[in-house]
Design brief:
Helix content: over 70%
Order of helices and strands: H
Oligomer: single chain
Number of domains: 1
Number of strands: 0
């Protein structure tokens, strides 16, 4: 009688434990799968982050090279500006020399004409 009484209870307890164990195993597998998926996502995220860091490093190097080229270009433009200012000053100097030379030439020609006229008038007066 005791077996009859305990028998089904043991089966019921054993069956409950088995069901509970299967449920726990199923939940554990699902949790493990989620952890694996989370780990995979974390690895992908890390890879993407590393790629982004590499891209940012390359972009930084590119920007640094461009900055250097801009400094060189700025230096070249400054030097070119100084050269153009010197050329402009020399052009002005040459114009001044040309004008002064032309004025001197005009004065010399005027003096020669005046001298020739004076000499001719004096020669004409002496003849008369």
């Amino acid at each position: 009688m005791r077996r009859e009484l305990l028998g089904p209870e043991e089966l019921y307890t054993s069956e409950d434990q088995r069901t509970h164990l299967l449920d726990s195993t199923s939940r554990l597998e699902k949790t493990s799968d989620r952890l694996d998926e989370g780990y995979r996502i974390a690895q992908e995220t890390e890879e993407i982050g590393l790629e982004i860091m590499d891209n940012l490093q390359r972009d930084r190097e590119t920007i640094d090279r461009m900055r250097g080229r801009l400094r060189d270009t700025d230096s070249d433009l400054s030097r070119g500006g100084r050269i153009l200012r010197r050329i402009s000053r020399r052009i002005i100097q040459h114009k001044i020399f040309f004008v002064v030379g032309a004025l001197i030439l005009i004065i010399v020609i005027a003096l020669l004409i005046t001298a020739v006229v004076l000499i001719k008038t004096q020669t004409d007066k002496k003849k008369n």
